[in-house]
Amino acid sequence: MEEHKDIATPARTKAILDKYRLAAKKSLGQNFIVDTNILEKIVDAGDIDDRTTVIEVGPGIGALTEQIAKKAKEVIAFEIDDRLLPVLKDTLSPYENIKIIHQDILKADLKAFEETYLMDAEKVVVIANLPYYVTTPIILNFLESTLPIDSLVLMMQKEVANRLSAVPGTKAYGSLSIAVQYYMDAEVAFIVPKTVFTPQPNVESAVIKLTRKKEAEVIVKDEAVFFKVARSAFVQRRKTLWNNLQVAYGKEPEIREKLQAALDQSEIDPKRRGETLSLKEFGKLSDALVEQELQMIDIQSR
Ligand code: SAM
Questions:
Q1: Percentage of residues in the chain with pLDDT exceeding 70?
Q2: Tell me, what's the pLDDT at 300?
Q3: Which of 85, 129, 194 to mutate to test the pocket of ligand 1 (most atoms within 8 A of CB)?
Q4: Is the peptide bond between 199 and the residue preceding it cis, with omega within 30 degrees of 0?
Q5: What is the mean pLDDT of residues 212-223?
Q6: Where in the chain do CATH 3.40.50.150 domains reside?
Q7: Contact (CB, 8 A) for 214 and 274
Q8: 3-state secondary structure of 15
Q9: Average pLDDT for residues 217-239, to the nearest whole number?
Q10: What residues line ligand 1, using a CB cutoff of 6 Å?
Q11: By CB count within 10 A, which of 61, 201, 215, 227 is most buried?
């Protein structure tokens, strides 16, 4: 392949944006990386090779896509902003292993995507500098899908990265930590300063690596109940589990009796706060609640 300049330098990025008369759209979370070292670190964290299919969200002007394409078998990238399509066609023209899908990742039919693009994939990894306004739904959609994803390397706000990787007993630990750690091991790979972006975001960023657990840490009777119980335990963080469970299930004497029985069975002190419970304990508790045939009241508003 002929030598060409990386996209992720301040000068080249400016030249590309000027050429297409583009201004970054804040509403789409557009903060472009202008530092090739950071991009290489992100790609390295993905541990990819020429057998890996990489899914990217939000290629922007192609800075990260390019670095991935140098190492991966192929990159399939979802971009919502139609203004960027001609740009990507231009900037990524030296690469033959990139496919851009013009779609909102949150509206994509991931099942159909899998059948169309991933049938022969040997190893699938997601790598993205996420649009920060939709970080959580994008991650949860991937995790709850059937896509055969080995790992995800994702740039996001540092505060969100801390929540995803938080351990019990810490302020950052909550239902999001549980929703993610149910499927994946989560660790912050490195912190990223604002200065590597144009325009610069208001907050600090971090790259997190989520790796599929080799073995499930908890196996529950009903996943939907497990996730609902975990959410309900954090509705009022400062309240005890006992309080939050009564808000979720009701305060009637027969319900309280069943709640007490479920807590006894799972050997969890009702005076504890949700934030102290491990994934395994939430698993035991949700199984016990299922056995007691307790029904949660309106969770619509949660
Ligand atoms: N990958 C580029 C980089 O690292 O410089 C750009 C990252 S920028 C933080 C986020 C990108 O996601 C933008 O290109 C934006 O247009 C795109 N985006 C925002 N919302 C999206 C969505 N719902 N689906 C797909 N792409 C989206």
A1: 97
A2: 52
A3: 129
A4: yes
A5: 95
A6: 10-212
A7: no
A8: helix
A9: 95
A10: 28-33, 57-60, 63-64, 78-81, 104-106, 129, 131, 134
A11: 61
Ligand 1 center to 172 CA (angstroms)? 26
pLDDT digits (tens, 9 = 90+) for 257-283: 999 999 999 999 999 999 999 999 999
Residue 241 β-bridge partners: none
Nearest CA to ligand 1 atom 23: 104
C-alpha to C-alpha distance for 251 and 10, rounded to whole angstroms:
60
Please, where in the chain does CATH 1.10.8.100 lie?
223-301
pLDDT band for position 5 (50/70/90)?
A: confident
Phi, psi of 249 (to 5 degrees): -110, -25
Distance in Å, CA 205 to ligand 1 centroid: 15
- Alpha helices (H) along 98-222: 110-117, 135-144, 158-164, 175-181
Q: Quick one: which atom of ligand 1 is closest to the CA of 108?
A: 24
Average pLDDT, the chain: 95
- Of all protein residues, the one whose alpha carbon is nearest to atom 17 of ligand 1 is 58
| Domain 10-212 part of CATH 3.40.710.10 | no
In angstroms, the CA 167 to CA 120 distance is 36
The amino acid present at 229, given as its one-letter code, is V
pLDDT digits (tens, 9 = 90+) for 138-167: 999 999 999 999 999 999 999 999 999 999
